[in-house]
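Ops channel
N.P.: pipeline sanity check, posting one input/output pair.
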């Protein structure tokens, strides 16, 4: 039995500018279900991606995959 990860990507302007939307698309291409989040007010930590109800700050694909 597999456990599906809950992933949310902040779609605020700063997170989007720092690659959040691109990472969301990459994660979807990998088969993950991704929720588009309104701005999470984590701008200094952009891009912010939520994995299992915890945010990954200054997220990279490597950091996100490690948390899955």
């Amino acid at each position: 039995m597999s456990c599906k990860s809950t992933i949310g990507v902040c779609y605020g302007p700063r997170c989007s500018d720092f690659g959040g939307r691109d990472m969301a698309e990459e994660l979807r291409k990998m088969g993950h279900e991704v929720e588009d989040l309104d701005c999470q007010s984590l701008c200094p930590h952009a891009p912010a991606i939520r994995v299992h109800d915890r945010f990954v700050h200054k997220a990279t694909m490597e950091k996100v995959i490690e948390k899955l």
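N.P.: looks fine end to end. The first strand starts at residue 7 and ends at 10.
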